Amino acid sequence: MTGIGVLRLPRDVRLGFGQRHAVPALATGFGSRIAVVADPFLAATPEFREIVAAMEAAGARTLVVTDVPAELPVPAVVAAADTVRDFAPDVIVGYGGGSALDAAKVVALLTSHPGPVDAYYGENAVPGPVVPLIAVPTTAGTGSEVTPVAVVSDPGREMKVGISSPWLIPTIAIVDPELTLAAPRGVTTHSGIDAFVHAVESFTAAPLDIGHDAVIPVFVGRNDLTDAVSLQAAGLIFRALPRVLDEPGDREARADMAHGSLLAGMAFGAAGTHLSHAIQYPVGALTHTPHGLGTGALLPYVLQACRDVVPDRLAQLGQALGLDAGGDLADRAQSAVDAVADLCARIGLPVSLTELGVTPAYRDRIVELALQSRRLIGISPVPADVQVVGAIVDAAIAGDRAALRSVPTHP
């Protein structure tokens, strides 16, 4: 117990097959002008068309915006926001994967407050409420439907940039596992393992001393309200993700993945994530590989580096994953790290960064950029300095976790 608990959630969260049918009535409850920010590939699906048709049948005027690329380059998001601002919506509906939901968050922000968008980079820079947002995820992965974070690609920077503020948390989250049934295998894999990373890193993140101030960091580290949620999410995803990949139509496994992803989003939306994410941001920018692919590939190395610092946490994680509770604390912690590595291998993730195209020549730049992610580095369970982060990157490039069993964990 840390003695502190923090959760920040939408006012209404709904999970279950068919819950998307509530979206039209919920949206029109805010007013008659509804802007929808949607993944362009999903806007032509019957499920999406049915939602829009029902809103219009209820007398709403709708604006559907789909021209926002997956990596969310700032100019495209700003253009979408200009269009939506002119429409003057009463509510915005975000529909799609993490990129679509993040785009809807930024559009809601720029519809409510003047630009430029870079004025809101970092933490707690959003000055107040944004247009009400209903988030409808179609993947089980990012948890963006319940988090205070949106990530964009700024052409002037080498990495993606986060906007983090409680004002960005959607008003309503509608999680319908049926919408994930058609997700391609790659999307299911990468989004699913990223959700697992969210669960594990939120459970192992160092707690911050937040005092009693009204404004606190967006990410406060593990705490008394997120711990149980993180562990439940990790267990659900650990068991369900291989099943979903083996049997994409397994509705029970899809429901467990949606449930686990939602819980992981609830947990990391307050606790935060740490080194797998900090290192992935430059790796993803350099190699143009999917976010979840990178965080998943890095997680076994990060946990190996953390083993001797948070063995109790890793042993508890192992229990949540269903591992044997026998052996001493160090053995149980190592078993948990090994089980995570086995999961990553089982679902086909690369065992080294070399397989993603990272060469030793990239090493120093990756370390330098990773250390710039201060909100992530600040809740690392190990002292995240050049030496420690460098050791993790070296091991991940070489594909050798054993090299991290003697990594220095104290300044």
UniProtKB/TrEMBL annotation:
Name of the top EC class for this enzyme: oxidoreductase
MF-aspect GO terms: alcohol dehydrogenase (NAD+) activity
InterPro entries listed in its UniProt record: ADH_Fe/GldA, ADH_Fe_C, Alcohol_dehydrogenase_Fe
SUPFAM superfamilies reported in the protein's UniProt record: Dehydroquinate synthase-like (SSF56796)
Ranges where the Fe-containing alcohol dehydrogenase-like C-terminal domain occurs: 189-396
Taxonomic superkingdom: Bacteria
Boundaries of every Alcohol dehydrogenase iron-type/glycerol dehydrogenase GldA domain copy: 10-177
Annotated EC: 1.1.1.1
Pfam families the UniProt entry points to: ADH_Fe_C, Fe-ADH
Statement: the UniProt record of this protein carries the keyword Oxidoreductase: yes
Keyword Oxidoreductase among record annotations: yes
Keywords: Oxidoreductase
PANTHER family, per database record: ALCOHOL DEHYDROGENASE, ALCOHOL DEHYDROGENASE 4
Family under the similarity heading: Belongs to the iron-containing alcohol dehydrogenase family.
Protein name: Iron-containing alcohol dehydrogenase
Species: Microbacterium alkaliflavum
Organism placement in taxonomy: Bacteria, Bacillati, Actinomycetota, Actinomycetes, Micrococcales
